[in-house]
Amino acid sequence: MTPAKPRVEVHYCPACHWLPRSTWMAQEILYTFGEELGEVALVPASESGRFTILLDGEIIWDRRQEGGFPDVKTLKRKLRDAIAPDRALGHLDK
């Protein structure tokens, strides 16, 4: 039996109009980690102001805790470190 691939969830506040930012981040995640991931899900949050990214249910980014949104470089590094630590990210590693 093949082990399940990791799942990323992007929880965003629709009232704050963060869907475009969320879809862009999901696109970047899939572009970079498409073979390592099983799914990237966009989840409209019922909580106002929420922007949280989870990997298999564990928070890897929370806008309120971190004080803002992640830049793609930081987000990709966090994901890489969790799902494919030996993988190079090219120019993002510099």
Describe the structure.
The chain has one domain (7-93): Glutaredoxin (3-Layer(aba) Sandwich). The chain has 3 helices and 4 strands. With 94 residues, the protein is an alpha+beta fold. α1 (19-33) packs across α3. The protein has a 4-stranded mixed sheet with strand order 2-1-3-4.
Residues in helices, as a percent range: 25-40%
Shape category: globular
Order of H and E elements:
EHEEEHH
Q: How confident overall, as mean pLDDT?
A: 91
What's the number of extended β-strand segments? 4
* Order of adjacent strands in the largest pleated sheet: 2-1-3-4
Strand content: 15-25%
Keywords:
94 residues; alpha+beta; Glutaredoxin; 3 helices
Compact description:
By secondary structure, this protein is an alpha+beta fold. It has helices at 19-33, 63-66, 72-83, and strands at 7-12, 39-44, 51-55, 58-62.
